[in-house]
Amino acid sequence: MANLVLKFPNNLRSFSISASAYSNGSPPGVHQSKGPVILELPLDRIRRPLMRTRANDPQKVKELMDSISEIGLQVPIDVLEVDGEYYGFSGCHRYEAHQQLGLPTIRCKVRRGTKETLRHHLR
């Protein structure tokens, strides 16, 4: 077991440490069979089928951009994975903030679903 020494500035508000090399304990591309996993996904891999039907609040997006720039994304967006494709139905403001900041990826809480689950979300 390796020893690790961390030094923090006195004005540090919060931090987190992961004991795994990967956020969900599995290498990228390896899905666990139960429950959601946390993955960093490229924005262009996430389909947003309801984007055209909803408008985001520009002020909320701006506030999130400021927060993400300062402390990073605090709450992952929820994503449904069906047959290797990723679908986002929530986290619209966080997703747009990442887009406007030019960030290539976003942290996602991914759960697996069936085509029937996807149809249910599209209703």
Automatic annotation (TrEMBL):
Catalytic activity from the UniProt record: S-hydroxy-S-oxy-L-cysteinyl-[peroxiredoxin] + [protein]-dithiol + ATP = S-hydroxy-L-cysteinyl-[peroxiredoxin] + [protein]-disulfide + ADP + phosphate
SMART domains the record matches: ParB
Residue ranges of every copy of the ParB-like N-terminal domain listed in the record: 39-118
Gene Ontology molecular function terms on file: ATP binding; sulfiredoxin activity
SUPFAM superfamilies referenced in this protein's UniProt entry, alphabetically: ParB/Sulfiredoxin (SSF110849)
EC number per UniProt: 1.8.98.2
Coiled coil, from the record: none
Record's keyword terms, sorted: Antioxidant, ATP-binding, Disulfide bond, Nucleotide-binding, Oxidoreductase
Keyword Oxidoreductase: yes
UniProt-listed CDD domains: Srx
Presence of keyword Calcium: no
Binding site for ATP: G91, C92, H93, R94
Family the UniProt entry places it in: Belongs to the sulfiredoxin family.
Stated name of the protein: Sulfiredoxin
Taxonomic classification: Eukaryota, Viridiplantae, Streptophyta, Embryophyta, Tracheophyta
